[in-house]
Amino acid sequence: MPDTPDLQQSVAELEGMGFRVRLAPLLEAGRHRWWSAARPDEIVEEFNGLPRDPEVRAIVAYDGGQTVFGYLDLIDFDAIRADAKPILGYSVRRLPSRALRHLCALGL
Questions:
Q1: Burial of 59 (0-12, 13-18, 19+ CB in 10 A)
Q2: CA-CA distance, 97 to 12, in Å (whole number)?
Q3: Using CA atoms, how far apart are residues 92 and 50, in angstroms rounded to an integer?
Q4: Distance (Å, rounded) from C-alpha 41 to C-alpha 26?
Q5: Which residue pairs from 50-56 have beta carbons closer than 8 angstroms and sit at least 24 positions apart in sequence?
Q6: What integer pLDDT is reported at residue 103 of this predicted model?
Q7: What angle (nearest 5°) sits at the alpha carbon of residue 92, between those of residues 62 and 31?
Q8: How far apart are CA 91 and CA 88, in angstroms?
């Protein structure tokens, strides 16, 4: 796990509630591209894999950020519609949830 105290605390809190936490690879320590973890195409590739993974039952964004504007149109809404699961975030990270409500009629 990256040596980030707030991430470690977040993982501990979720595990303390009984959830099993699996960190996405882009959370590797030292990964960055300007203010983001990676290029938008790398982020959306990872993000699109999460709804398709039957072991993933919720997606919790570690941070917000304007990077979402670079991949919002690349999100696989069909995969999300096929296996709807909670997607939690804050700041502009809420944009995918708003798009999901509109495009997938998930009632989020």
A1: middle
A2: 25
A3: 19
A4: 12
A5: 50/24, 51/76, 51/79, 51/80, 51/82, 51/83, 51/85, 52/76, 52/79, 52/83, 54/83, 55/22, 56/22, 56/85
A6: 61
A7: 40
A8: 11
Tell me the whole-structure pTM to 2 decimals: 0.75
Spell out the per-residue pLDDT of the chain, length 108, in tens: 666 788 889 899 999 999 999 998 888 756 666 667 788 898 899 989 999 999 999 988 876 667 777 888 898 988 988 998 888 776 654 555 666 665 665 554
| Cα–Cα distance measured from residue 102 to residue 59, given in angstroms and rounded to the nearest whole number | 19
